[in-house]
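Record filed below.
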Amino acid sequence: MTGTQISYYFHCKRHLWLFANSINMEQNSDTVAMGRFISDNTYKRKKHEIQIEGIALDFYDAKTKTIHEIKKSDKMEETHIWQVKYYISVLESKGIEGVTGKIDYPKLKKTEDVFLTESDRVKLREIENEVKKIIDSKVPSEVINKPFCKKCSYYDLCYI
């Protein structure tokens, strides 16, 4: 399970299935490239991306126990919040207590604080179970026909 999968669960279950089943289209996406550029150019003086069992944290401040997730836009803020909550839960499972999160939107000069509550932990377990069911399904979910689909890296695969 990855934070990206948690994010895609909220964004588009079809996208989640395609991505998790190794059908990758992100390499062709200008939106993904821009997000990567913003992430790569934020926190330059600090050790940037940190890997924990296949999970990539954009930046972790060990002194304050704060996970920073860097995003281009706040249009999909709920997906970002749950992704960070998932990351907090992963660090907690490794014995690191008191972790919080912060979503950084450098282009907007905005940050969003993220905390993991007990009810969030319960919901995360439910989400993880649903993600597994979606990934293990033999076929992808239906196309969702949302306005943001036009900018999705999987657009051609879903609509053409």
